[in-house]
Amino acid sequence: MKNKLFLLLLAGMALTTSCNKFLEEEPRSNLSLEQYYANDGQAMATVNSLYRRGAPSRYSVAASAYVGPTASINTMLTGYFINTYEGQEQICLFARQLTRQQNTSVVSSTMNTIWDESYKAINIANAGVKYIPGINMDESRKKTLLAETKFFRAYNYFYLVKTFGAIPLSVKPNETLADELYLDRTDVAKVYELIETDLKDAVADLPAATFAARGHRIGKYVAAMTLASVYLQQGKYADAAAAAKIVINSPHKMTANVDLQFNSAYNKLRTTDDLEEVIYAQEYDATINNSGWWTTYAFSSSATSVFDKYSIFERIYGPTNQFLNAYNTKDLRIQPNQFFHYKYTNPVNGKTWTSDVPGIWYYFDEQAATVTGRGTKDWNFYRFPEALLIAAEGIAKSTGVSAEAAGYLAQVKARANTEGKTVATWTTELQALSADDFVKECWRERLREFPLEFKMWDDILRTKMFPVISTTEAGKIDFVPLVGAKNASGATFKESDLLWPISPDEIQRNNKLTQNPGYQ
């Protein structure tokens, strides 16, 4: 690990008053880690800093007009999504072409950022685990803060282990030059052991309230959803189903369609924060922390002639026509102005954007694009359909296809159906499938439901199966072994494509680190 860990900028964050929903940033001065956890207020402020640093920002921060959040680049490996500015943002090009091995130096700056920011968050969390128990404060509040700290340590390690494989595992904060800064890579299974332990503690100790009800703080259901994802990633299916069912039995529920147009569930998800469907989200606000370039990702570059609130529009994460064929023609998600769109008229000036290739309607914040230039829509990390699909797959893999498993999958399929097919009808049909076919149907629904939230590569990585989307038959998706398969750009997957390279800068700093196989 980097020798600057002990010099972390511990950017504290303090809760604002009741008129503001945000965890507002408030930078602190040169204090030691122990001093940062000296009392209730300091502990709260430092734990708050974890909400906006490290792994969560890999999914939610749209800091550039030309390349999306780091997690979006993983999907480029499939060839089903492309960045039209990949000539400049070459990490996207080399991911799509599966040539990262020959271009390690080009992608290393991104790898540095992932590594640095995640380990900074982990170091803060490690200090919290060490010092919070000794603070003189209300015991219930202490237990909750400690559980939040463990959640973020686990969340950051989860992102790192999926990205790099075996990584250095540290549970003690680096506070002085005397601390051990250079650690060996730890076996993946050992990393997952810590992740599971932290998340199980968080599930046990956090309040049983939704993220919105807790004032946008981590609660039991966020921790349970993350634990379910962690179990699923490892193939621990029964455990994954059990954790997912904690969420399913919570106050969370699916957003309903009012109609199949602009009042659909998918449009509500696009425009409305704090829906009961949303389990965990990143907050955005026009004053404290707006959503950056998110809304510009909804269009192609020609949109600059239609809007005047943003100087750049770019299709930094655009689906190929082959990917769009993942949906059958009766699927609501593929209809115009649900997930994707081809035409928009600005109501302020009457100018119209049209495109032969789809923009991503799901990212569009109309108020930001037409009036304010500052996006406020929160970014959703986890939604209720994911709990349903994890439980469905977990049950089918561990005990077989049951009415319960079929019912969970049926809820996701019924909402996306435009012909009025009920959950009961879907349940009956799905229950007749073999376990293998049922599980693949879960994979298909995950592909269709979450393509814009950067979960596709995680599923491919855990199953070691690549989804082959038909170019001729809408809705047809087959699966083939990942290694040896061709992605949608015609590149062949190698074993070394399963992980990203550790940055050469990190290896130079820490000679105990070794590079992932296949990379320069």
Automatic annotation (TrEMBL):
Residues of the SusD-like N-terminal domain: 69-232
Any Pfam family the entry gives: SusD-like_3
KW Membrane (keyword) present: yes
Keyword Acetylation (UniProt): no
The protein, known as: Putative outer membrane starch-binding protein
Residue span(s) of domain RagB/SusD: 347-519
UniProt keyword annotations, A-Z: Cell outer membrane, Membrane, Signal
GO CC annotations, alphabetized: cell outer membrane
Recorded superkingdom: Bacteria
Organism of origin: Sphingobacterium detergens
Family: Belongs to the SusD family.
Subcellular location: Cell outer membrane
